[in-house]
Amino acid sequence: MGSALRDVLIVMQWDLMKLKNQKIFLAMRVTWFVIQVLVFARAVSYIVKRAVSELIGVDYYYFYLLGVYASLLYSTGISRGYIVAEEFDDGIVEYHLSLPVKRGVLAVGRVLGSALSAVLFTLPMMLFVMLIVGLESPSSISVSTVLVSILAAVLFSVSIVGFVVLVVMGVRSTDLTDILMGAVDAVLIRLSTVFYPLPIIEASGIAPYYVAAALNPISHFADFLRILVFPEYELVAKHGVLPTLLYIAGLAAGLLILALEYYEKKLEAGGWK
Amino acid sequence: MKSKAVEVVNLTKKFGSFVAVDNLSLEVYENEIFGLLGPNGSGKTTTLLTIATVYKPTSGEVYVFGHSVTREDYIVRGLVGIAFQDPKAMWIDKPYDLLLWHAKVVGYSGNEAKRVVREVMELLDLWEHRNKYFYQLSGGTRKKVELAKVLIQRPRVAILDEPTAQVDVLSKHALWDVIKEMRKQGSTVIIATNDMFEAERVCERVAIVHKGKLRALGTIEELKDSIPRGDVVEVEYEGVLSSSIIEKLREYGKVKVAGSTLRIYVEKGEEKVLEIVDALKLSGIRTKKVSVKEPTLDDVFTYITGAKLREE
Fold it and tell me: B55–A87: do the CB atoms touch at under 8 Å?
């Protein structure tokens, strides 16, 4: 194994090793997710089922479940920003910068490790969604569907974590991180197809909302999962499965490269507010 | 000629308009225990973090075994290990997990990493705390976890930023032995401290920094001798001191008499003490007890900077 790859894998373990200390948080998250899927998702889909399901060709309940998983993964990825900010506050970034690894390796390892830990943290919820969909619509779910969904989740998570790491290191302030992440979180989730299908947004007649939702990375990830599970949804999403995956992969690669550049050229400890 | 482990050349580090380190130059020789002394905010930690490539110099340069911290930072990080002043961990971390990860990052493979982590944790009496959360550990135990990182790494240059702060007295002595052992095993050790007793016990050479500037550099003896008339020859005597003998003693330095105790402030007291005793004897004064007191490093610091090391 190459030395750089070995180092990346070891750095990734920094985030992964912390997962095992988060059993209580995970249990709480899973519990709430299960309640949301079995209670609230049922209720909301009952309200809109007939009108929306006919329009998008997919049962709104499934639409909602895959969307709510996408939003959950997004929020978990965003929460990495708070952890990185906390690490700056506690001086852990200084420790990492002192380690005998190249800055680029550190950047790639941290982003991939954070992304993977976000995916692992939300994996029980993804599998639960797939199980619910599979029980009610067995032909929609296969092993390959699950594996490709996980791969897409990793790519999506890399882009979110890469973005967050760049923002946190750019602003170098815990308070500003809180404000920015809160604002970004609110805007991106709302201006997406997580809960509202694109044709409905289009029908609302608010052009900026429609454009933002169509370009939004969360929309792409949620719609990718929907197309994967229900290929007929491709017509509604207005993107093919491959372009959607390429969008997610391109965003992940771009943000990873930017984070790498930042670590290598600009990052040093100190100056945290 | 001694080879240089670390060479700091005209180092300046600014944070905005604040100058943390101001044109500092010093050398640390291979395989010595070097002390960086100064009060809080004097620039010690900034200097150490620049050596460890955590900070980038604003101007000047630092070399570690000839490698530049700005151009060859990756190589430097392979040579330097640092135990930070504030232990670096989150409340939810566990010492064993942290140290095992650290061992892997610094190059140990799986089983070897587990073995060395256990060895070091046992050496520092940390093994029983291995699975506690960090927030459950005392300040001293947290410091030991920080020191354990350096012991696991065995770097060529070990940087210890206030390694025994918050550590109890018994553990302090044990840690000093550990630090000396690191040197025996080939590491160059740089310690930042404002504990003068620690510096005197452990360090061979020290630099005194104050407000970012280097104020003195040398062995502890050299620094003590640099204070004019810093030694005190103290004599308990019997008899009456005539004005002529007091005049004679003033040739050595300032003289103070309090009851039957005579104090003379001299340079290199150990060389002058016999002459003083002889002079007293010739004047018919019987000496009951004689002692020579050296200045402490605290005195040296106060003399050089005009400030106290610790806030009172």
Answer: no
Query: Is the model's pTM score more than 0.90?
Result: no
SS3 B32: coil
pLDDT tens-digit readout, B90-144: 888 899 999 999 999 999 998 999 999 999 999 999 999 999 998 999 988 999 9
Least confident of A1-5, A227-231, B250-254: A1-5
Residue B55 burial by Cβ neighbours in a 10 Å radius (0-12, 13-18, 19+):
buried
| Helix segments in chain A, DSSP class H | 3-19, 23-35, 41-56, 60-89, 92-97, 103-136, 143-171, 174-190, 198-203, 207-215, 217-229, 234-237, 241-265
Predicted confidence (pLDDT) per residue in A71-88, tens digit: 999 999 988 767 877 787
Separation between Cα atoms, residue A158 and residue A112, nearest integer Å: 6
Q: At residue A213, what are phi and psi to the nearest 5 degrees?
A: -65, -35
Least confident of A17-21, A75-79, B183-187: A17-21
Contact list, B56 vs chain A (CB under 8 Å)? 268
- The candidate with the shortest Cα–Cα distance to B82, out of B45, B112, B110, is B45
A14 touches chain B (CB under 8 A): yes
Residue A119 C-alpha, separation from nearest chain B C-alpha, in angstroms:
20
Contact A31/B at CB under 8 A: no
- Chain A partners within 8 Å of B88 (Cβ): 90-92, 94-95
Classify residue B53 as exposed, middle or buried by CB count within 10 Å of its CB (0-12, 13-18, 19+): buried
Beta bridge partners of B14: B19
Which residue matches tokens 């792409």?
Answer: A220
Whole-number Å distance between alpha carbons of B208 and B42: 9
- A to B CB pairs, distance under 8 Å: 74
**How far off is chain A from B98, nearest CA to CA, in Å?**
8
